[in-house]
Design goal:
Elements: H1 2-25, E1 32-38, E2 45-51, E3 60-64, E4 72-75, E5 77-83, E6 86-95, E7 103-109, E8 119-122, E9 134-137, E10 140-141, H2 148-157, E11 162-166, E12 169-170, H3 179-192, E13 197-200, H4 207-216, E14 241-245, E15 248-252, H5 266-284, E16 291-295, H6 317-321, E17 322-324, E18 333-335, H7 338-343, E19 348-351, E20 357-362, E21 385-389, E22 398-400
Parallel strand pairs: 9-11, 10-12, 11-13, 15-16, 16-19, 19-21
Antiparallel strand pairs: 1-2, 2-6, 3-4, 3-7, 5-6, 7-8, 9-22, 14-15, 17-18, 20-21
This protein binds fe (ii) ion.
Catalytic activity: a phosphate monoester + H2O = an alcohol + phosphate
InterPro entries: Calcineurin-like_PHP, Metallo-depent_PP-like, MPP_PAP, PAPs_N, Purple_acid_Pase-like_N
Keywords: Glycoprotein, Hydrolase, Signal
Length: about 400
């Protein structure tokens, strides 16, 4: 009987694997998984896509302001990704010289192979005298993707300017020889091909040193990033980068560097120094962009103890208070981010990871600083306001749509 059960499980597993490979290879030669990301500013957009089986060295983006007249084209940079059973070809193209606040139509592919359908996106407004609308969430998988129908409808209505997915995707991208990642990216295409889909990593992207995540996304950030003048594939800043959007300076960073130190410690220090440079520059430019918003994956404060969260203080010490960088317990804590973000007057911090939505009062060092009675704590807050929005896997995404005038 025991052998029979093993044999039956094996058959089931083999059948399941075969189905997954078949799904993975469905339309394998087609240009697919199209998604876009903001470039340096409102005049640029990065288009990223994949083919599974076949390389197409002539992959291009045709684009224009009319859906039946795609007059311009940009040749993509092609790279090959391989890891165990996973493999695919990535195509990345940087569109430049776009007009602000303009709808563009585009397709990807090539004459020699095939073309995708025609997609569209709208570039951002220029300047700071407008109020952007963002969808912000963490924790969206290929199963239990309860927010996706709402998100899709909202995108079709043009409710947002940018989507931020702040870590934990697909659960997990690398699984089943990368086919879970392929299917997730196909699932996202209706929204991510139309709206800039900006990302950073969560704990579920950690596999293989975040390489599956890195292979699928193309964040570059603004012109102040250290590798700004490099070629496109050397300009990728998928873990930390910044953007100016309307009246806000937005800084995206990795909380995961503090937890996966088996991939090294140096990135904690590099990121911290970059963050401080960014915050100094953002403050110098504060009249122009008065909001400073940071986003990462794991929140400093938690409502559910455990999962790397201190049961007594309900805080995640390494990110919030720092790490023993020289690895001796007696040494000073370094590179904690709470003091840094407080010192430079960050207004708003958004995180995912915990599968619910919470908005805190302004908080610093575990308390909400006192303020005059009857005042609105969120108006010109005395400390950063924290929002946890890791609930895409449940029912709703959270979006910020300012209603006050500038
Ligand atoms: Fe997470």
């Amino acid at each position: 009987m025991r052998n029979f059960h093993i044999s039956r499980s094996f058959v089931a597993f083999t059948l399941f694997s075969t189905i997954l490979v078949a799904i993975n290879n469905a339309n394998a030669s087609e240009h697919q998984q199209v998604h876009i990301a903001l470039g340096t500013d409102e005049t640029e957009m990065v288009i990223t896509w994949a083919t599974i089986e076949s390389i197409d060295d002539h992959g291009v983006v045709n684009f224009g302001t009319s859906s039946d007249n795609l007059t311009d084209s940009v040749t993509a940079v092609t790279t090959y990704f391989e890891d165990d059973d996973a493999y695919w070809y990535n195509y990345r193209a940087l569109l430049t010289g776009l007009k602000p606040s303009t709808t563009y139509y585009y397709r990807v592919g090539s004459k020699a192979s095939s073309w995708s359908k025609v997609f569209q996106f709208k570039t951002l407004n220029s300047g700071n005298k407008w109020l952007p609308s963002f969808a912000i969430y963490g924790d969206l998988g290929i199963e239990n993707e309860r927010s996706l129908p709402y998100l899709t409808k909202d995108v079709e209505k043009g409710m947002y300017d940018v989507i931020f997915h702040i870590g934990d995707m697909a659960y997990d991208l690398y699984e089943y020889g990368g086919s879970r990642g392929n299917n997730f990216m196909r699932m996202l295409e209706p929204i991510a091909a139309r709206m800039p889909y900006m990302t950073t990593t969560g704990n579920h992207e950690k596999a293989k040193n975040f390489s599956h995540y890195d292979a699928r996304f193309s964040m570059i950030g603004d012109r102040h990033q250290p590798n700004y003048s490099a070629d496109l594939t050397d300009r990728l800043n998928n873990h930390f980068y910044s953007l100016d959007i309307g009246p806000a300076h937005i800084i995206i960073f990795s909380t995961e560097f503090y937890y996966y130190t088996r991939w090294g410690w140096e990135q904690i220090r590099w990121q911290y120094r970059w963050l401080e440079d960014e915050l100094i520059r953002a403050n110098q430019n504060r009249k122009e962009r008065p909001w400073i918003i940071v986003m990462g994956h794991r929140p400093f404060y938690c409502l559910v103890a455990g999962d790397k969260c201190n049961r007594k203080t309900l805080e995640r010490g390494p990110i919030k208070n720092g790490v023993h960088y020289d690895k001796t317990k007696k040494s000073q804590l370094n590179y904690g981010l709470e003091d840094l973000f407080y010192k430079y007057g960050v207004d708003l911090q958004l995180y995912g990871h915990e599968h619910f939505f919470v908005r805190f009062y302004p908080v610093h060092k575990n308390v909400s600083p006192s303020r005059p009675k009857e005042t609105n704590p969120y108006e010109d807050p005395v400390a950063p306001v924290f929002i946890t929005t890791g609930n895409a896997v449940r029912y709703f995404i959270y979006y910020i749509q300012p209603t006050n005038s500038l």
